[in-house]
């Protein structure tokens, strides 16, 4: 993935340090791999499960298995942090089931959790998104020492660097002596380029 300059943000950054190269970047998808199953309709879903839109919780209206009683909370949290429920032999993300339950149709693409909490399936916390839009609402990677998405310490040049990804393109925003300047440049670019999520989540900005 190549980086390209973003001329729309005035920064106090520096040109690339002498002899330095822009580091190789990767992007990580937060997508759950479970897909829509068209055979499961909203009508069938409502027959077997009850959904509380204010809590995001599903409970069984029927007894789906010998060891599970009607009235029990449906599903378990998977290793990605999403709540998953098996219905009629197929496993589904509870956030996708919530969309089907409330709106009567499967989401066209992905579902984004507005607050970034993957098991918070209240309907007010869910919105349809493309992969590119969903990536706009990502938190910083766990190994990001800055605490801010798109802001990293460039060890070779001993400066902070800022970047932003839009529609699969990585835009290099510059190098900075102060982390605060890199964070400011990233925030300005995000407000202009990330129309789906123009401001960082509070947990990201902390």
Classify the beta-strand content into a percent band. Answer: 15-25%
**Nearest-angstrom radius of gyration?**
21 Å
Report the major sheet: 4 strands, mixed
Distance between the termini: 28 Å
Shape: elongated
Poorly predicted runs = 1-33
Tell me what you see in this structure:
The chain is an alpha+beta fold and 206 residues long. It contains 5 helices and 11 strands; from the N terminus they run βαβββββαββαβββαα. The strands form 4 sheets. A 4-stranded mixed beta sheet has the order 1-11-10-9, with helices on one face. Helix 1 packs across helix 2. The longest helix is centred in the C-terminal third of the chain and has 15 residues, at 179-193. The radius of gyration is 21 Å and the shape is elongated. Mean pLDDT is 82; it is low at 1-33.
For the structure shown, list the relevant keywords.
206 residues; alpha+beta; elongated; 5 helices; three-stranded antiparallel β-sheet; 24% strand; four-stranded mixed β-sheet; 11 strands
């Amino acid at each position: 993935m190549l980086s390209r300059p973003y001329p729309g943000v005035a920064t106090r950054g520096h040109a690339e340090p002498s002899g330095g190269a822009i580091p190789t970047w990767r992007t990580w998808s937060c997508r759950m791999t479970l897909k829509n199953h068209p055979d499961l309709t909203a009508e069938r879903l409502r027959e077997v499960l009850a959904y509380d839109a204010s809590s995001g919780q599903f409970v069984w209206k029927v007894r789906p298995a010998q060891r599970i009683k009607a009235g029990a909370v449906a599903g378990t949290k998977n290793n990605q942090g999403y709540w998953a429920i098996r219905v009629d032999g197929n496993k589904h993300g509870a956030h996708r089931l919530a969309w089907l339950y409330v709106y009567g149709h499967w989401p066209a693409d992905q579902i984004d959790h507005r607050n970034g909490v993957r098991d918070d399936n209240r309907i007010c916390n869910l919105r349809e998104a493309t992969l590119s839009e969903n990536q706009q609402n990502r938190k910083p990677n766990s190994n990001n020492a800055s605490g801010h998405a798109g802001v990293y310490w460039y060890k070779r040049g001993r400066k902070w660097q800022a970047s932003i990804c839009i529609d699969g393109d990585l835009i290099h925003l510059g190098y900075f002596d102060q982390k605060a300047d890199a964070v400011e440049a990233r925030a300005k670019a995000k407000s202009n380029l990330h129309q789906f999520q123009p401001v960082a989540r509070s947990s990201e900005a902390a």
